[in-house]
Amino acid sequence: MKKLLIAKPALFSFDECLWFLNRNYDDCLHHIEPGSLSKAICINGENIAFSLRDQDQHLVLDLTHGGEDVAQQEALVQYIIEWFDLERDITPFYQLLQKNKTLGYMANDFAGFRLIGIHDLYEALCWSIIGQQINLTFAYTLKRRLVEHYGDHLSVNGLSLHIFPRPEVLQHVSIAELRALQFSERKAEYLLLVSQLFAAGTISKQHLLQCASYEEQVALLTAIRGIGIWTANYALMKTLKQLQAIPYGDVGLLNALLNHELIKDKKDNAGIDKLFKRFKGWESYLVFYLWRSLSVVKRDL
What we know:
alpha+beta; TATA-Binding Protein; Endonuclease III, domain 1; five-stranded antiparallel sheet; two-stranded antiparallel ribbon; globular
């Protein structure tokens, strides 16, 4: 078994990141045990499985299937670095947190928590579409059905590790087939449209990276039927780590803001804007930490 070491930054907690990837939801795209995770992805046309664990100053990456090529190993290491946002110095964000009387506790309670990404833009957009206007539990159920029906999987060490379906596969699925999996007709239409656009090369992560500004990225995504402001910002936050992306209208975000009495009600846009202006350049990180706070019983603030 090939073992690779990935250096950890000073402000990093693997346990915090594992908490986010688990949260007691039925996520079919990775398997988590105490202190480690297992996952399969496709790199350069080959399905590769790996496990990841914490050890002193490094993350230990064990290749459990494939990945014998050096270029693939380098790509996998870069995938991990991007997934856990390991190259970013988040000290300035912590300094802003510590200046805030209401949110300052997060710097200690959630120390080392990172913005966990979704490397593949196509997967991020599909997941956003799946999650529109339904609760997370049912969203994960729908994702599992989609992945198990149309994605690849590897059997490694007794685990069935699934890989998100490719657009070239999903573009040929019928609305009736998705309806049979309990997707609404509208969501089925959106998923098929996005799959067709990606399969044809009309939209891609590279297209977004070539945009001159964040605003252009949002405009490019929202021009696609079924992708609104929330979906576009979620995908930009998760895939491009666009730190100014805020998924406006997100129920979890609004609940967290209400829990901290930072807004009067869910329509208090002025209160939302006032808070995020104090965290300019770190808006997406603040969103992530507010989501993290939802697991904590409301405290006296």
